[in-house]
Amino acid sequence: MKKAIFPGTFDPFTLGHLSIVNRSLSFMDEIVISVGVNSKKKSYFTLEQREKMLKKLFADNPKVTVQSYDCLTTDFAEEIGARFIIRGIRTVSDFEYEETIADVNRQLTGIETILLFTEPEFTCISSTIVRELLSFGKDVSRFVPAGIDFNL
Q: Which end of the chain has less neighbouring CB within 10 Å, N or C?
């Protein structure tokens, strides 16, 4: 069984991330979207709100689950039996950085990393931009997946 995690970088705001998960489902049996716990990182939504949105977003897909974790991504992958990490990238510099991390992860743990570029129409839309637009009361509905509830 091919099981992968999409680690804490997944943001319910980002259509590019949703696209990567959906494309990954074509060659993975199961994907765990793992919401990383980082108490120092500021976020527009709490961990609980993000987790709730993600569970709602993937409620109809039995191949996708959502879990929180508070350890190294590779440790969490091993803990749940995932042999792959899915990473979304937008630029060549993202690719170079992620490729280096992937090599280290493979050597230390044997866990493979699959690097997928976001589709071209999503390359310029980051969750940071969407959150900034939200803070100014702008309509961001064309950038985010349907089903996201901003009134949590």
A: N
Identify whether 41 is a catalytic site residue. yes
Helix (H/G/I), strand (E/B), else coil: 6: strand
Determine the 3-state secondary structure of 84 from DSSP.
Answer: strand
Average pLDDT for runs of 10 along the chain of length 152: 81 70 91 75 69 84 88 89 88 82 91 83 60 73 59 54
Active site residue 87: no
Superfamily holding 3-135:
HUPs (3.40.50.620)
Domain boundaries, the chain: 3-135
Q: What is 17-64 written as a DSSP string?
A: HHHHHHHHTTT-SEEEEEEE--TTS--SS-HHHHHHHHHHHTTT-TTE
What is the H or E stretch that residue 108 is in? helix 92-109
Tokens of 11: 């943001």
Among 40, 41, 42, 142, the active-site one is 41
CA distance 117 to 87: 9
**Is position 142 annotated as part of the catalytic site?**
no
Q: How far apart are CA 87 and CA 85, in angstroms?
A: 6
